[in-house]
Design goal:
Number of helices: 12
Number of strands: 20
Oligomer: single chain
Strand content: 25-35%
Helix content: 25-40%
Strand order of the largest sheet: 1-2-3-13-4-14-18-16-17
Radius of gyration: 23 Å
Structural class: alpha/beta
């Protein structure tokens, strides 16, 4: 499972790529794509997915015995990670080199991006030249991944910053993070240009590189959303290859496991033959910047999908959507903080998750996590019944606590919610690490939850 995860991570340098990778897997598993702008014709036993903005994906499979008001077992994660993103006008020329101006996305450990071999990835809008009528020409959404080291953010030599090891390296993003792209016009091209199609100023050499990668002319690039990415592939590490070393583990690791577990429990017709619930995955963009966007967890996308599904399958029954939500569970799956051997004092002593000792249930009295006693018990019961390891986390009382999509969706939907995650080190670094065993056991935990959800939900609700 870990090696397959690495292949997914290497192919997913941006949220657009991650969503596309998930969509490819779902299509291969027999899932039908739905467009939000189209009418939906849903059937019991059907398997579906939909995309918003190309970076948020929702997938679901309907049990053959689903009835109006029955619940949903949903696993939610996110497709984005902290990174430097290109500014709309990225052109900079200083000291005989071409640079790209970038802006911070999320709360990254920015010093880890220095002295790395970096590429670019994201989405471009490309003008389609087919047809004679210019007014009828369309824009194509094209994913691009320059996976060779075309960029570098160099540190300052210690000879010019003698106090850096004692005073610390304080990153000034505006000043320190522009990335070196090239020397003085190495391709012999004409330098900066304002293109006739309205594209803001970019280095012409960059546009040529991107155009060559996707097979278009530089002047056909109408706009783009690109981010810097590490070009070094992920790897299994440690003496016994017990660790996963890669960028974007937070949170593509949980996104991958959510999709793979859903596919695994819906691969055969008999998997849904006796199922009375809907098995669901929601992967959101923009979690790292607060989720408040058209495709974030704070948007309408999940509730839109649930309402349309309940309406299509439940007809006009009173309260079909509301009853469904009250019989549902959301697993908010986001990576957790492993106990760091060099900073042991940063964890609550009795709530310090260890790598390769199982998935973590996260708790916070101030609702930074949405876990409560019922949702924790339900998730814990899956572990008990299947002999799977489980751990608990709460932040120290003298430290601030991060948050997830869990409280946002719980507030908007009223769904019972549990926050969980695989323990990892180096969270928000350009290169993170987690445990191979945790990848395997979390996959088993998720698939077992889908299978046993209806029974366990009745148990925690006190129903027979």
């Amino acid at each position: 499972m870990a090696k397959s995860l690495l292949r997914f991570l290497d192919a997913s340098p941006s949220p657009f790529h991650a969503a596309a990778q998930c969509a490819t897997r779902l299509r291969a598993a027999g899932y039908q794509e739905l467009k939000e702008s189209d009418a939906w014709d849903l059937n019991r036993g059907g398997k579906y997915f939909t995309l918003r903005n190309g970076s948020t994906l929702l997938a679901f499979a309907v049990g053959n015995k689903y009835e109006a008001g029955n619940g949903v077992c949903a696993i939610g994660a996110h497709t984005d990670s902290p990174c430097p993103k290109l500014k709309p006008i990225s052109t900079q020329n200083k000291c005989g080199v071409k640079q790209l101006a970038v802006q911070p996305y999320g709360g990254g450990l920015w010093y880890t991006w220095f002295d790395r071999d970096l590429g670019l990835a994201g989405r471009m809008l490309v003008r389609d030249k087919s047809g004679d009528n210019a007014r009828e020409k369309k824009l194509k959404h094209v994913l691009v991944h320059v996976d060779r080291p075309i960029l570098r953010i160099p540190t300052l030599a210690i000879h010019l910053d003698r106090d850096v090891n004692s005073s610390g390296f304080k990153v000034d993003f505006q000043k320190h993070m522009p990335a070196i792209l090239a020397g003085d016009d190495p391709t012999g091209s004409s330098g900066n240009q304002d293109l006739e199609n309205g594209m803001p100023k970019q280095h012409w050499a960059l546009l040529e590189c991107l155009a060559k990668k996707v097979g278009c002319a530089p002047e056909d690039i109408a706009d783009m959303e690109l981010q810097l990415c590490d070009t070094v592939p992920g790897a299994l590490g440690g003496l016994n290859e017990e660790f996963v070393f890669c960028g974007r583990l937070d949170n593509l690791c949980m996104s991958y496991l959510a999709i793979e577990s859903l596919i695994d429990v819906t691969k055969n017709d008999e998997d849904l033959a006796e199922e009375s619930t809907i098995r669901f995955v929601s992967l959101f963009d923009h979690e790292e910047v607060g989720s408040c966007s058209a495709q974030g967890a704070g948007s309408t996308v999940m509730m839109d999908t649930l309402r349309r599904t309940a309406a299509a399958l439940g007809g006009s029954q009173e309260g079909a959507v509301e009853r469904c939500l009250q019989n549902s569970l959301l697993v908010s799956a986001d990576m957790a903080h492993a106990h760091h051997p060099n900073y042991m004092d940063r964890h609550e002593p009795e709530h310090a998750p260890i790598i390769n000792k199982g998935v973590v249930i996260k708790h916070n009295a101030n609702q930074r996590y949405a876990t409560n006693s019922m949702s924790a018990l339900l998730f814990r019961e899956v572990a008990r019944e299947n002999a799977l390891p489980i751990q608990e986390f709460v932040v120290r009382s003298d430290m601030a606590c991060g948050s997830t999509i869990g409280p946002i969706i719980a507030a908007n939907s009223g769904m019972l919610t549990v926050d969980v995650g695989i323990p990892q080190l180096s969270m928000h670094s350009v290169r993170e690490m987690c445990g191979v065993k945790d990848v395997d056991t979390t996959f088993e935990h998720f698939r077992s939850l889908y299978i046993d959800f209806a029974r366990l939900m009745k148990m925690v609700r006190g129903q027979s």
